[in-house]
Amino acid sequence: MSLSTHDDGSMVQPGAQVMLQRGDLVLTYTIAGPDAVASIVEHPEAAAHADGHHRTGVNVASFTLVALRGESVRGRAVQAPHPRLRALLRAVGDAPYEAGEAGDVRFRLADPTGREQWLRLDEIPLPSTAPAAWPRS
Fold first, then answer.
1. Nearest one of 1, 5, 6 to 31, comparing CA atoms
2. Which of 40, 99, 110, 130 is in Cβ range 3.0-4.6 Å of 87 for a Cys bridge?
3. CA angle 117-121-125, nearest 5°?
4. At a CB cut-off of 8 Å and minimum separation 6, what does 134 contact?
């Protein structure tokens, strides 16, 4: 688990512990370092389902983006210190969206020629100034 609790986006150091109260329980999480992350994401079971996890993550992010376009939060969302979020909000604007039968969320956007198409969040072209999606190399 990596955790950013600082405004500058820096991560809590591996080995640090974070305690959270959940009802009568106190959960203690120990922040893992890069070696632990690699052993998890490279595990055969995780690798076998990587495409499905990616698709689910894109859909969750898409619905989050839809929620952040709401009138009551949009102003704060466009001021967030996350350049990729701001770029996605600009790219999507007020475009309609739909969740298809397979559950994939797509936005209806015009391509450079003006032809409209349905795109998943990870298919939307962003300016070269937008940070790369996670994982960053």
1. 1
2. 130
3. 70
4. none
